[in-house]
Amino acid sequence: MRQLILFALIVIGGTGGELFVSRAMKVVGQARSFKPREMVKFILRTLRVPWMWVGVAMMAVAFFALLAALSIFDVSFVVPVTALSYVAGAFGSAAFLGEHVSRRRWLGVVLVAIGVTLVCLGVH
Fold it and tell me: What is the number of domains present in the chain?
């Protein structure tokens, strides 16, 4: 059960954080220039978007869950299982951000899911 909770926190927190940060950056838009003054304005605009803060908080939860998982399980198990983030990312980008996911990407998602399943079946 502890294993399931940790990996759920890693996958949901990390992927959710990336989706929220992506939404924030769509609100903020592109940096117009890389001059220091413009970059400061860009950063300040970014910090005013609530999606950014939620995303960063979710990523922090995922990071600490990853640390906990690495302290308990082998890296050869943790890293492949966290690849479920790719699966969650494809679904999240389609559902939450309204992005189009091509058939080729969905095929990649299926292959990743199969790989994670094989890794999990090999656990004793």
Answer: 1
